[in-house]
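Data availability (excerpt). The following record was deposited with the supplementary files.
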Amino acid sequence: MYMKFSICYNNNFDTLIDCIVIGIGESDVFFKFDECNKRKSKKYILKIIKYGDFQGKIGQILLLYKIPTMVDKRILLVGCGETNIINQSDYEKIIIVCIKKLIEMHVKNILCLLINCCVLNLNAYRKIKFFIETSKEIIQNDEFKNLNIFWIMRVIKNIILNIENLKHLKNAELALKHSNAIVKGIIRTKNLCNMPPNLCNAEYLSEKSKNLQLEYPDLLNTIIINQQEMKQLQMNAYLSVSYGSLNLPFMSIIKYNGNINNQKRPIVLIGKGVTFDSGGLSIKPSKNLDEMKYDMSGAASVFGIITTLSELRLPINVIGILAGCDNMIGKNSYRPGDIITTMSGKKVEVLNTDAEGRLILCDVLTYISRFNPLLVIDIATLTGACMVALGATYTGLMSNNKKLANDLIQSGNVSNDLVWQLPLHSDYENDLKSIVADLNNSDKGLAGASVAACFLSKFVKDYPWAHLDIAGTASSIYKNKGSTGRPNKLLCEYLLNQSKIFI
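Predicted structure:
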């Protein structure tokens, strides 16, 4: 279900419209559409408001037919709250309610005036970009459903976003370009995450990575590190996690070369790609175990972000790592009590085989130092503790660099893909002490997200580094169950800024 968006200025379009979407506040009508301003039609709509059939509350909707003097079939009134200025969260609610209603109505071509309302801290570019991204995120993966003709008929064909000010036209078109690329990446992230684990394993991730290079051959170079090569590199921590599975581990390295001439140092994105996490011998309970297919959300996010970069051809260099494997139980499973020599040479005592993500990432963090990175961001569904602390609203952020952390927080605020910084304090290292090795891979039950980040920090070299714990934000167990596509919007916003594309 792929709806298309287009921009028009001052109602200048040649498409037959099935429905007009108009935003109305509780006290003011803030739209300027010629047909609605005709005396009879405006009087009719204001009468409906006066009689109390429509109060203009946030997210309230009312569908009208056969409006006097109007040629269009329908008008959808959407409530926008008490004032002419709404916040970003309410704007999101308005968009979601509107799009879901339009899908339900079976309409094909829509003229939308909602982008003309005032949203706090959002200019024309950001309003349009946010509208398109939010609208398209409602799309669900239907690859494994047999869709009937009734469902196909519900697909929205085109949404025309009308802008009233000509000076906003250029930024509106740029917003359309950027949001389409970002949403393409988000959809790919979602579809990859939502794949069943019997089909999506580390080898599947590697094949997807190679196919991505074929799609953008002038920008991408993909390298696959297999099990034998990992052994030669002495990536023993990564390998230990994979030994219980029949599926072999593969680390996919996708190099995006958008700034070849200047040869700038790359930004490295590392995605945890555990395509199913049983917990290993420290086995997880059966409740919601099916959701452990989302333990590769970090890798899927990196895949989607590289897609977006390639669509936009941003003038930066980025290396994306998809660290793929399974954490299963088998005759060769690693055990609590094992001592593993990591690629860095540090020895780790295994206390919990369900704390596998940090073992994978520690070897990858060592491996990527060969790229002399400008900065490194790892993305992982790492700890349940982060989910308990922050829920499904904020992604956990821990960093060794204040500027990087602040930039990510700002990007999260602008994109509404929020992050919250958690402490990375030396006191947490006490939980990592081992009497038989350099450190252990677990915590003592307190501050689990920060302890896990402290573990990773032991393998970070002299470069700015941020850790994004997406355990609570990568997927949803509620009505729209499945991948959320986070933190793609956050990181795409950050990378747009790194590309010096400011609006």
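Summary of structural features: The first strand starts at residue 4 and ends at 9.
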